[in-house]
Amino acid sequence: MLRGEKTTYHRGVEREILLTGIGGQGIQLAARTLAEAAIADGRRVQLFASYGGMMRGGNSDSYLAIGDEPITSPPVVGSAWAALVMHHEHAFGVWPKLHPQSISMINSSVVDPDCRPMAGHGEVAEVAALEIATELGSPVAASQVLVGALVARTNVVSGDALLDSAARVLPSYRSEAATVNRLALEKGMELGEVTHPAWAEVTAGGSR
Amino acid sequence: MSARLVEGSEAFAQAMVSAGCRFFAGYPMTPFTEVLEHMAAALPTVGGVCMNAESELEAVGMVWGAAAAGTRAATGSTGQGLSLMQESIAEAALAGIGFVVLNMARGQGDYFQATRGGGHGDYRTPVLAPSGPAEVSQLIGEAFDLADRWRNPVMVVGDYYMAHTWVDVELSEDYPEPRSAPDWTLDGSTGGTGGAKLVSPLGTTKQRDGVGYDLAAHYAHADQQREAMAAGITPRAETTQTEDAEILLVAYGTMARYAESVVAMLRSEGHAVGLVRPITLWPYPERQVAEAAAGCRLVAVYENNAGQMIDDVKLSVLGVAPVVGLNGYRTDSSAFGISPDVSVEQLAASVRELLETS
Q1: Mean pLDDT throughout A87-110?
Q2: Which residues in chain B have Cβ-Cβ distances shorter than 8 Å to A75?
Q3: I need a labelling partner for B63 at 20 to 30 A (CA). Which of A132, A205, B214, B330 fits?
Q4: CA B352: distance to chain centroid?
Q5: What is the dihedral of CA A73, A77, A81, A82, to 10 degrees?
Q6: For the domain bounded by A14-189, which CATH number is listed?
Q7: H helices of chain A, where?
Q8: B288: which chain A residues are within 8 Å (Cβ-Cβ)?
Q9: B254: nearest Cα among B160, B138, B114
Q10: Is the dihedral of CA B173, B174, B177, B179 positive or negative?
Q11: Chain A window 33-72: which residues touch B at a Cβ cutoff of 8 Å?
């Protein structure tokens, strides 16, 4: 009836992305947008959301892992290949997980200038995400700008998949936001060149 | 089939529908609520019924009725709600009624409740523990098969992490037809028709003309059934790098995912650390734990409670190696079982300390 026990040991390349901010900044939407795009690219994903029961102002964190094999990381990942920091309030949990090969995307419009990764903990990209989103007419799309900028520097997901996921991740009662969110992603993707390729050392495309 | 981003709670629901579950009842309580919501959406589309009951007592009673009438049925809750269901789970075991109970726990403080049960009488419930959404589908299917095979409630243990973790899943929208009702189940025939049956925790003999239930015979039969079930279910565990391990970690469910990462991390540093992950919590994989522990310096049980599964580990190891607990972690203010101390770094630090001091 039950299968016999099995012995397994396998770990493929996984890209862990930590997203942190406060409720209302679009952290969960940003994480879902990346996750949907990664699936469209044929990759495997795992996404754990933690938001303390508060709609606005409380902590909102997301732990996303993307890989070419089934994900082995636990829900709260131990290290971060990339960090998206929308607000400094709860970012203290992110900094210790960064390492010299990490990349941090900082929403410099909001994040306290004293709140940055420790020296030697990888590349730090400052993006005035809130100002850019406000110019597009939608301050709540700031996290989408930051996601676009991460993709510009890493290609962690393909640009086409990212833009296609903008509409798919929205609930029906928010569908009117799809256009401006897509614009925000595009604006972010114009910010910078690939400095930190996500999949340089592994074959592109999924293994399913 | 195509891959879709699915929340763990939806993976539980889809697995139940795919396994032929056509009746589900429950009362909301995080993180069980999310499963109930997904079942409420899914079951009507396949001709099933989902009930938001007035209480957990009512929910398990409804499921008892559906299962007695031959439908694959399930309920579930979180610790407190499962406490309320214990009497019915015990009585269902004595009555020979099989259904699936989801134990969507907060943390792992309900290990004893799941594996020992809080009801009355000489009963046991098989308990299956997936380590994440990816394993849910298979174990849910097996849980329904076990419930049918042994006519006994079967528990599947999840937690807040599992319910709230999204993964890409290949989902089939093509649901197989549920199995037909077994012969012993009730079909609506009433007294005098010759087709009436009795399904009761007091036995299946009708009481009439001064002939009472033979409770002794019923309980003896129930004992035989339980022993056959205990012998008939293969205890199962997954082992990771245990062959040469000096320190053996034992963890189940989500906690095992952290332990697996720590084993990989410490192995890359040259430390001989291994992991055994029980998949069946009852029957407990005593042989697998004992074999993995043989030759180890120390066995460390990593669990998100004050130390419960460590009892089963000690019973398995029987003094062959010292057993210590890595437990007693704080919970956060949500009380949903999210512990700020449950992390790869924290566990790695604890194991490094054990490597130095043991």
Answers
A1: 95
A2: 132, 161, 164-165, 254, 257
A3: B214
A4: 32
A5: 130
A6: 3.40.920.10
A7: 27-40, 129-135, 142-154, 159-168, 178-189
A8: 5
A9: B160
A10: negative
A11: 35-36, 39, 44-50, 52-53, 70-72
Segment B311-354, tens digit of pLDDT = 999 999 999 999 999 998 887 766 677 788 899 999 999 999 99
Answer whether B5 sits within 8 Å of A47, measured CB to CB: yes
Alpha helices in chain B (DSSP H): 8-18, 33-42, 56-68, 79-95, 111-115, 133-150, 160-164, 215-232, 254-268, 286-293, 309-317, 344-357
3-class DSSP assignment, residue A49:
strand
What confidence tens digit (pLDDT) does each residue in B9-48 have?
999 999 999 999 999 999 999 899 999 999 999 999 999 9
User: What's the CATH superfamily of B2-171?
Assistant: Thiamin diphosphate (ThDP)-binding fold, Pyr/PP domains (3.40.50.970)
CA angle A106, A109, A114 (to 5 degrees): 65
- CATH of region B237-357: 3.40.50.920
Residue spans per domain, chain B = 2-171, 237-357
pLDDT tens-digit profile of A138-186? 999 999 999 999 999 999 999 999 999 999 999 999 999 999 999 999 9
Instruction: List the one residue out of B204, B230, B238 whose CA is nearest residue B218.
Output: B204
Q: Do B240 and A49 touch (CB under 8 A)?
A: no
For residue B153, whether the previous peptide bond is cis, meaning omega lies within 30 degrees of 0, is no
**pLDDT band at residue B1 under the 50/70/90 scheme:** low
Tell whether A170 is within 8 A of chain B (Cβ). Answer: no
Secondary structure letter of residue B211 according to DSSP: B
Residue B95, SS3 per DSSP: helix
Q: Does A79 touch chain B (CB under 8 A)?
A: yes
Q: Are B139 and B156 in contact (CB under 8 A)?
A: yes
- Which chain A residue's Cα is nearest to B267? A9
| Chain A neighbors of B139, CB-CB under 8 A | none
Please answer whether residues B248 and B242 qualify as being in contact, where contact means their C-beta atoms are separated by less than 8 angstroms. yes
Residues of B in contact with A74 (CB under 8 A): 254, 257-258, 260-261, 344
